[in-house]
């Protein structure tokens, strides 16, 4: 595979109709990598707003989330996938791994995101094996290059370029370094096509799904150890009340009674804090007055129904 480190910008195509026209490009760019390499942070930075929740815990991303970048050159649909974990210890992890593999079908470019501040590990080898037979343009994205500890393993990833990837970009998703170069490379490799989303759409999630994800983010940030992985959120109701307040009712599902007690907390302090932090962020984003009601229920079978 001929590889390069790219810093080029795309050239408009010419149509022989007596005038210069720019082609409209569109397609799907799938982000894949181990857990916590910064895929969701990168997605948010590229879209320019928060479309994916982010936490320090593995498996924060549970479904392939699409974030849309609108550009005069065309439209990029980024697909943020769950992080690849080596051992599928439970049913949820198995389903997440299956969703990653499914996301690799019918793509236009593949973006392999790595974190050089972490030890390499077998998960990296497993992820590389998943993409080795994909015959689409592949870009190696070395994230977090602004951190001092990145120098520890960065040469390992640079050495992957010639055998596995068409090009490589070193960037910082958090600080926005080299994101324009990344978008330029993607547009160079996207096919001509029509937009998949309307101009005002930036995600494939509906209102209920976006709110459910935000609630889950606050749960992940507050809860410790295994508890977040036992949790699922379903928004059941969004209603405008006569006083103008937007009422939101949601269920927090967990697999065991002891987890329910931990989520609610002593004197219901835990669930109140989660509700308050979610409500404040929603009010900041929407500019509306929000009333959020969270109900915690035990449902040991939610993972079986999870898709």
What's the short story on this structure?
The protein has ten helices and ten strands. Residues 7-20 have low confidence and may be disordered. With 307 residues, it is an alpha/beta fold.
> How does the overall form come out from the CA principal axes?
globular
Question: What would you give as the CATH superfamily of the largest domain?
Answer: P-loop containing nucleotide triphosphate hydrolases
Helical run tally: 10
Any idea how many domains? 2
Classify the helix fraction into a percent range.
25-40%
Cross-sheet strand order for the largest sheet: 1-7-6-5-2-4-3
What order do the SSEs take from the amino end to the carboxyl end, as H and E? EEHEEHEHEHHEHHEEHHEH
Provide the CATH topology of the largest domain.
Rossmann fold
Please outline the major beta sheet: 7 strands, mixed
Measured by DSSP, the beta-strand proportion falls in 15-25%
Explain this structure.
The protein is an alpha/beta fold. The protein folds into 2 domains: 4-189, 3-Layer(aba) Sandwich (Rossmann fold); 207-305, K homology (KH) domain (GMP Synthetase, Chain A, domain 3). Helices cover 32% and strands 22% of the residues. It has 10 helices and 10 strands. The protein has helices at residues 39-47, 91-103, 121-131, 154-158, 161-164, 179-189, 207-222, 257-264, 269-286, 302-305; strands at 4-5, 25-32, 65-71, 74-80, 109-114, 138-142, 167-170, 231-240, 246-254, 290-298. A 7-stranded mixed β-sheet has the order 1-7-6-5-2-4-3. A hairpin with a 5-residue loop joins strand 8 (231-240) and strand 9. Helix 7 crosses helix 9 (269-286). The chain is globular. Mean pLDDT is 88; it is low at 7-20.
């Amino acid at each position: 595979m001929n590889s390069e480190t790219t810093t080029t910008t795309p050239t408009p195509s010419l149509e022989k109709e007596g005038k210069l026209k720019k082609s409209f490009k569109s397609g799907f760019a799938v982000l894949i990598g181990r857990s916590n390499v910064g895929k969701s942070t990168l997605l948010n930075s590229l879209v320019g707003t928060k479309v994916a929740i982010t936490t320090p815990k593995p498996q924060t991303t549970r479904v392939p989330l699409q974030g849309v970048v609108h550009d005069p050159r065309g439209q990029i649909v980024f697909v943020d996938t769950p992080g690849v974990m080596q051992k599928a210890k439970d049913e949820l992890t198995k389903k997440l791994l299956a969703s990653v593999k499914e996301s690799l079908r019918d793509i236009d470019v593949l973006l392999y995101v790595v974190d050089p501040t972490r030890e390499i590990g077998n998960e990296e080898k497993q992820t590389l094996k998943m993409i080795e037979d994909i015959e689409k343009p592949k870009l190696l994205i070395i994230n977090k290059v602004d951190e001092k500890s990145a120098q520890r393993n960065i040469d390992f990833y640079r050495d992957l370029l010639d055998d596995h990837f068409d090009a490589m970009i070193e960037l910082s998703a958090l600080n926005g370094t080299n994101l324009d170069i990344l978008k330029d490379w993607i547009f160079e490799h996207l096919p001509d096509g029509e937009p998949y989303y309307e101009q005002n759409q930036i995600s494939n999630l509906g209102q209920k799904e976006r709110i459910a994800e935000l609630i889950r983010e606050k749960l992940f940030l507050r809860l410790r150890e295994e508890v977040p992985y036992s949790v699922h959120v379903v928004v059941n109701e969004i209603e405008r009340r006569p006083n103008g307040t937007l009422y939101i009712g949601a269920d927090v599902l967990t697999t065991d009674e002891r987890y329910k007690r931990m989520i609610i907390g002593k004197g219901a302090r835990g669930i109140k804090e989660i509700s308050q932090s979610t409500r404040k962020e929603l009010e900041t984003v929407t500019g509306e007055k929000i009333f959020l009601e969270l109900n915690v229920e035990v449902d040991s079978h939610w993972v079986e129904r999870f898709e």
